[in-house]
C-alpha cells in the first residue's frame, strides 16, 4: 500500500486480518527504510505496529483519545493519521516531531517526551469527559519501562479509586531502553507466563451465577472462593487489587488476540488494563536481537547488515569520559556508588556496571527516588553519584532541594545532555538546569571547556566533601584534546583566562567557549581586543575575577547554552548589582524565553543566535563609541 496516500485511519474499519497483516508488513518496511537514513526510535515503533493498527481499527480517533506515553513509539500512529509523506523530515529542523505534537494533528491529543505522564493526563481527560457528559474512550498506552515511573504509580492509585472508564494499554516488551529492571518488572514477568485471566474470570462468573442463592452467607462464601481462585490462577493481582480490571496477557503481534481483548475492554465498565506482550524491534532482525538497547534510539544504519553508520570520531563522548573516570576512581575509592534512573546505556555506564555490579543501581525511570536514594547513601558516608540527563533532572527538583541541598549532602550529579540536544527537541533540551539549580543554597555547578577539564571536575567533586555538586556535560563528543596527563583537582570556584584582552570580556563555559575564542580571534583582526574567560564554575562564581572586571570597567558578554532568565548571565548581573558595580555594561546571550524545537544543534544555535558571528555583532554593539569607531576603521 502507498502509505503516503493515507489521510486518516477510517479505511482500517473494513480491513480483514489478512489485509492488516499486509499493511503491517508495509509499515515495517517503510520505517526500516526511512529511519535508516537519519535514525530515530525504531525498535519501540516496530514493536507496536499491530497494536497501533488494531487500536485505530477498533476505536475512533480523534474522538477516542490515544495518549502515547513517552511518545517515542507514535510513528505508526503518525503514519495512520496522514503524516507518512513527512517522514523524510522526521526529527529534522522544522520537520515532523519525533513525539506526538498537538499542532501537527488533531489525533495527537497529548504531547510527551518524558515518560510516565499518560495515566495522569488520561485521568484528567476521563474526569473532564464525565463532567461534560460525553462518551469517548480514553486510552493511555504505557510501556513496562514507563510504568516504573512514580507518576504512573500515583495515577494508578487514583484511577483505581475513582473507577472512571478508561482502557490502559500496558505495552510490555520486557525492555526499557535496556532490559527493564525492578520488582514491578518481575511481577509483570509472572503475569506474562500466567494463563489468560479474563477467560478464567468469565468462566468463574458464569459458575457463580449457577450457584443457587441461599442468602448472604453463601454469596459471601462464593465471592471468597472466587477471590481465592483468582489468587491461585494469577501469580500477581496487583492491578485487580487496585480496582483495575486486568485483561491478558495478549499476544501483541496477533490481530485476532488483540481485537478480542480490546473489544472486551471496550464494553467493560471502570478502569481496565490490557496487558499486551510485544517484541521491541519486531520484524527487523538486528533490532530484534538487541539485548542492550542500541536500537532504542538508533542513528543511521545499513539496512542489509544492520551496521550503524557513525561518523569517525577521534574524541570520546563526554558521557564516556565521565563513565570511565568514575570507573577509575571507584577502583581506589570503594565509597563511590553510581545511581542511574534507567539511563545506563545513554550515559555510558556499562563499563562501571561491569566492573562494579554491586555499586551501580539502575533504579528504572525513577529520578525522584534516584535522588533521595543518593541522599540516603550520603548520610552514611558513601560517595553517591547520580548520573542523570539535564532534562530528566527536572523531575527530581524537590528531592534536590529538600533532601540533598537542604541537608548539604555530598551528592554528585553528573548532568548529562546539558545544553541543546538536537533531534529530540523541546521535551529534551537541557537548557533549564542552570536556572533551576543556581537558586538552591549549597549547590555548586560546573562545566568543563573540554573532556579533560570534565574529567578533572569529576575528580575535584569527589576528592573531598563538597556538598551537592552538579557537573554539566553536553551530548556528543569531546574536542579531541590530549588525555595523557593524569587528572588533577581544580581550585574550587576559580575561573581561567583563556585569552588576554583589555577592551572587553567574554564569559562562557563548555563547548560555547570555542565560539567565544573564535569570535575574539576575529575581533582582533578589527582591532578589538577581547578577553575570553572560562567561567567553569557557574556557582560559586569567581568573585575575584568579577571584581577585576568591575575595576577595569570593561564591557562584559556572557554566553550560555541555557535559558537567559535566571541563568549564568543573570548571576553575573546579580553580582555586579549586589556589589554596587552599577557602571558595568553587561550583555547576556543565551536561550530566549520560549521552548526550542528539534533540529541539528548547529541549526538551533543559529536560531537562538549563539554563533560566532552573533557574538561578534553583539560585541561590537556593546563597546563604547570610541572603540566601535576604532573597529570600523
Ligand atoms: C522521565 C524520563 N526518564 C527517562 C526517560 C528516557 N527514556 C525514554 S524511553 C525510555 C524507556 C521506556 O521504556 P518503555 O516505556 O517500556 O517503552 P519501550 O521503549 O520499551 O517501548 C526511557 C528510560 C524519559 N523519556 N523520561
Ligand atoms: C525518548 C527518550 O527520552 C530517549 O530515548 C532519548 O531520546 C534518548 O536520548 P539520547 O539519544 O540523547 O540518549
Ligand atoms: Mg518497554
Automatic annotation (TrEMBL):
Positions with a binding annotation for Mg(2+): 144, 173
Pathways involved: Metabolic intermediate biosynthesis; 1-deoxy-D-xylulose 5-phosphate biosynthesis; 1-deoxy-D-xylulose 5-phosphate from D-glyceraldehyde 3-phosphate and pyruvate: step 1/1
Cofactor dependency: Mg(2+); thiamine diphosphate
GO molecular function, one term: 1-deoxy-D-xylulose-5-phosphate synthase activity
Stretches that traverse the bilayer: none
GO terms (BP aspect): isopentenyl diphosphate biosynthetic process, methylerythritol 4-phosphate pathway; terpenoid biosynthetic process; thiamine biosynthetic process
Gene Ontology annotations for the cellular component aspect, listed alphabetically: cytosol
UniProt domain Transketolase-like pyrimidine-binding: residue ranges: 316-481
Annotated signal sequence range: none
Family, as annotated: Belongs to the transketolase family. DXPS subfamily.
Name used for this protein in its record: 1-deoxy-D-xylulose-5-phosphate synthase
Taxon lineage: Bacteria, Bacillati, Bacillota, Bacilli, Bacillales
Protein encoded by which gene: dxs
Amino acid at each position: 500500500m502507498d502509505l503516503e496516500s493515507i489521510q486518516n485511519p477510517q479505511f482500517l474499519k473494513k480491513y480483514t486480518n489478512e489485509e492488516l497483516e499486509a499493511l503491517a508488513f508495509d509499515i515495517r518496511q517503510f520505517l526500516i527504510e526511512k529511519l535508516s537514513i537519519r535514525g530515530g526510535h525504531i525498535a519501540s515503533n516496530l514493536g507496536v505496529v499491530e497494536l497501533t493498527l488494531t487500536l485505530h481499527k477498533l476505536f475512533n480517533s480523534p474522538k477516542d483519545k490515544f495518549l502515547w506515553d513517552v511518545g517515542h513509539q507514535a510513528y505508526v500512529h503518525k503514519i495512520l493519521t496522514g503524516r507518512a509523506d513527512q517522514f523524510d523530515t522526521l526529527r529534522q529542523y522544522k520537520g515532523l516531531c519525533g513525539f506526538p505534537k498537538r499542532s501537527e494533528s488533531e489525533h495527537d491529543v497529548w504531547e510527551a517526551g518524558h515518560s510516565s505522564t499518560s495515566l495522569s493526563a488520561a485521568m484528567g481527560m476521563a474526569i473532564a469527559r464525565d463532567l461534560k457528559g460525553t462518551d469517548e474512550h480514553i486510552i493511555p498506552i504505557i510501556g513496562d519501562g514507563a510504568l516504573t515511573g512514580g507518576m504512573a504509580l500515583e495515577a494508578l492509585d487514583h484511577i483505581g479509586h475513582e473507577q472512571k472508564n478508561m482502557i490502559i494499554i500496558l505495552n510490555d516488551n520486557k525492555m526499557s531502553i535496556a532490559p527493564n529492571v525492578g520488582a514491578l518488572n518481575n511481577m509483570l514477568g509472572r503475569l506474562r507466563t500466567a494463563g489468560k485471566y479474563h477467560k478464567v474470570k468469565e468462566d468463574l462468573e458464569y459458575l457463580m451465577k449457577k450457584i443457587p442463592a441461599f442468602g448472604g452467607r453463601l454469596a459471601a462464601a462464593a465471592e471468597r472462593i472466587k477471590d481465592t481462585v483468582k489468587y491461585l490462577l494469577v501469580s500477581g493481582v496487583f492491578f485487580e487489587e487496585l480496582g483495575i480490571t486486568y485483561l491478558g496477557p495478549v499476544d501483541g503481534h496477533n490481530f485476532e488476540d488483540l481485537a478480542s481483548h480490546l473489544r472486551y475492554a471496550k464494553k467493560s465498565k471502570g478502569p481496565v488494563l490490557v496487558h499486551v506482550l510485544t517484541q521491541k524491534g519486531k520484524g527487523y532482525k538486528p533490532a530484534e536481537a538487541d539485548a542492550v538497547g542500541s536500537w532504542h534510539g538508533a542513528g543511521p544504519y545499513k539496512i542489509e547488515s544492520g551496521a550503524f553508520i557513525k561518523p569517525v570520531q577521534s574524541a570520546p563522548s563526554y558521557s564516556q569520559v565521565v563513565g570511565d573516570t568514575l570507573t577509575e576512581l571507584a577502583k581506589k575509592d570503594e565509597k563511590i556508588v553510581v545511581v542511574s534512573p534507567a539511563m545506563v546505556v545513554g550515559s555510558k555506564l556499562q563499563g562501571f556496571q561491569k566492573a562494579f555490579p554491586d555499586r551501580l543501581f539502575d533504579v528504572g525511570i525513577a529520578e525522584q527516588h534516584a535522588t533521595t536514594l543518593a541522599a540516603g547513601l550520603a548520610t552514611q558516608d558513601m560517595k553517591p553519584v547520580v548520573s542523570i540527563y539535564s532534562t530528566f533532572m527536572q523531575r527530581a527538583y524537590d528531592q534536590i532541594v529538600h533532601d540533598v541541598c537542604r541537608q548539604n549532602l555530598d551528592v554528585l550529579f553528573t548532568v548529562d545532555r546539558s545544553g541543546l540536544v538536537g533531534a529530540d527537541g523541546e521535551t529534551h533540551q537541557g537548557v533549564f538546569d542552570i536556572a533551576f539549580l543556581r537558586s538552591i543554597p549549597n549547590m555548586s555547578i560546573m562545566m568543563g571547556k573540554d573532556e579533560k577539564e570534565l574529567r578533572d571536575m569529576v575528580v575535584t567533586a569527589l576528592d573531598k566533601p563538597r556538598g551537592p555538586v552538579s557537573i554539566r556535560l553536553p551530548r556528543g563528543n569531546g574536542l579531541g584534546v590530549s588525555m595523557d596527563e593524569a587528572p588533577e583537582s581544580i581550585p574550587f570556584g576559580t575561573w581561567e583566562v583563556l585569552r588576554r584582552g583589555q577592551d572587553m570580556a567574554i564569559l562562557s563555559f563548555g563547548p560555547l567557549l570555542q565560539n567565544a575564542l573564535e569570535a575574539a580571534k576575529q575581533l582582533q583582526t578589527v582591532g578589538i581586543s577581547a578577553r575570553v574567560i572560562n567561567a567553569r564554575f557557574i556557582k560559586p562564581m569567581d568573585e575575584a575575577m568579577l571584581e577585576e572586571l568591575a575595576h577595569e570597567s570593561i564591557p562584559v558578554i556572557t554566553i550560555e547554552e541555557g535559558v537567559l532568565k535566571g541563568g549564568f548571565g543573570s548571576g553575573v548581573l546579580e553580582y555586579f548589582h549586589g556589589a554596587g558595580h552599577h557602571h558595568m555594561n553587561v550583555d547576556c546571550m543565551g536561550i530566549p524565553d520560549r521552548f526550542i524545537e528539534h533540529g541539528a544543534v548547529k541549526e538551533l544555535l543559529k536560531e537562538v543566535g549563539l554563533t560566532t558571528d552573533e557574538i561578534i555583532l553583539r560585541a561590537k554593539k556593546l563597546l563604547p563609541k570610541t572603540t566601535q569607531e576604532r573597529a570600523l576603521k
